[in-house]
Amino acid sequence: MVRKYVFGTPLETGAVVSNGLKGENGFAELAGTEGKADLTEMTGLGKYFSLIPAGEGEEGLRFVHRMDREDIVYGLGENVRGINKRGWIYESCCSDNPNHREDTRALYGAHNFLMVKGKNKNFGIFVDYPGKVVFDVGYSKMQELAITVPDGNLYFYLMEGETPEELVKELRQLTGRSYIPPKWAFGYGQSRWSYMTAEEVREVARLHRENGIPLDSIYLDIDYMERYKDFTVDEERFPDFGKLVEEMKEMGIHLVPIIDAGVKVEDGYSVYEEGVEKGYFCRTQDGEFFTAGVWPGKVHFPDMLNEEANRWFGGKYKVLLDQGIDGFWNDMNEPAIFYSESHLKEVFENLADYKDKNLDLQSFFRFKGMVSDISNNEKDYESFYHVFHGEKIRHDKVHNLFGFYMTKAASQAFEELCPEKRVLMYSRSSYIGMHRYGGIWMGDNLSWWSHILLNIRMLPSLNMCGFLYTGADLGGFGADTTEDLLMRWLEFGIFTPLMRNHSALGTRQQEVYRFENQEAFRHIIELRYGLLPYIYSEYMKAALSDGMYAKPLAFAYPEDERAKRVEDQLLIGESIMVAPVYEQNATGRYVYLPEKMKMVRFRTLTDREETVLEQGDHYIEIPLEEVVLFIRPEHILPLAEKGGQSVEEVDFENLTLLDFTLEESSYEYYSDDGYGKDFENPAHRKVFRKKAK
Ligand code: GLC
Predict the structure, then answer these.
(1) What are the tens digits of pLDDT across the range 3-33?
(2) Is the pTM for the entire model greater than 0.90?
(3) Which of 353, 404, 520, 555 is most deeply buried (CB count within 10 A of its CB)?
(4) Do residues 624 and 546 lie in contact, with contact meaning Cβ atoms separated by under 8 Å?
(5) What is the DSSP letter of 496?
(6) What is the Cβ-side half-sphere exposure of residue 414, based on CA atoms within 13 angstroms?
(7) For residue 18, what pLDDT is reported?
(8) Domain assignment of residue 501, yes or no
């Protein structure tokens, strides 16, 4: 049951699909509250929340829920900390923030969905409000959940259900089906900021193939473009681009270029000139085009929220589609702002005051802050405007929608330009509902061991919010990686739908062939390809049933008090549990088994050992080069015996069925060609059964 509460006059963000999807049947719409809700009229909500004005004389609203000690709070998608979000304060304010630290409040996405699971209660909420929202989950007061929305205009959805999975389904029925990428996008991808020339790209491809390391994609970061101009290719460094794309395809490798949000200000650059002529860029209060600085220097932001401008921007992807490209990643779309022209001017003017000054404690920090506060400054969000649903609106009021609409632009264009085909698309910034148009990656993590754990925890939280196609920058983006870190991270990454090794400019290069123990890397990646029939099948079933691909143990074992608190083991699909190693020099780890399971130890895809383990705690040796997973009782894990160098080569038909059958087990296997869109065709499903001997 979903109830929709209308406070004031909310903006239609586009998060909710209002075309008669199943979820709408359950709506009880409760409106007319004029900002300050009359709780007595609002059946249901008062049971969970008290509502107070958000501050003296402010328009804002605060929804307060008193938590019981044992309540667990799930959700909030892309954020730091645990699967249980209690004990911190999170802000939904899409931010270009490479510092994924414990005290970080906002990352790239705004995922305003959370669930409270307690002894006798189970409810979820989705706050459909496109500006900043604060989720204080026991930070100010340990037992209090307080959600603050700065003005009184929002939709508040309340979901009730027996289990968290039901609530997740309710959200999905409200916001639409998760994006389904092409099958090749489940293969291994190699990325780096940046491969600078076509030759370098060829070398990356060649070295993977020569060393027998499976690979399906190579990513092109900003340097493939001509001076960072969207929808251009640098002809000197990437001559005859279409031919390169073709040549790579012949090797079974897809090139995936990045697209940035800002359009370079440069005379003669057609995207810029057209945007100016048609008035498609965001403007300042005075009607000038807003100018910010990003990679190319000065840029204008296309008004992604304006329908016409949005279609226009989407249409530009054609330039690359026409050259054989079939996948993209959208970046810097919070939008990231290194500086705004106006703020920069101000800083230069003010700096002069400090020139001959004796900088003391206060003045030094003010001086330093002036420069360091210049990037992604929230003040800049107040200095430009969109035309949204025909009305002029200041950016900060709709800030969290920019990445959503950029990705929608691309997705709509793909539907029109190549309706038969699945195109890979994922974005950095996102809002609830964007999961219909693409996936997301987990942003600029660091080559830190603690970030493996962070990304393990982020995975189910993102799934709860609809983002099934996701994964981390394996090996870590910023900072220098090490061979063992990359290996352990890949051992987790083989289970994430998006499996990409990506690193930042200036850091140690981390293509797997650069390290000594190539054989181990090869085996780990080969195992991914062996697991693909299962991974793909589970992904498709989750997407098509509005379910989750990766879950916390608590969702499957709700009565098990121990399982509820486990945050470093996950259920991947219906058959298996994983327990990745995320500590350096560890040669194993403790694993909690909520029930009797069969452990499978993979030395390689074909060299494996099976052991049945009883319910309870176990210390499991996991040498650096090995992967272990656990099959649940009465479940089957289909495995391709023959992997391949690319997804195209994997045999999805002749499978080995690993199983843990006590009496009888079964598995519904989903398999299609991976490129078409007849997802619902029953011919894609079959059932495997096994009986105990
Ligand atoms: C941003 C992206 C990162 C990319 C870099 C250069 O930091 O998050 O993935 O490599 O920009 O384009």
Answers:
(1) 888 888 999 999 998 543 333 333 445 544 4
(2) yes
(3) 404
(4) no
(5) S
(6) 24
(7) 57
(8) no
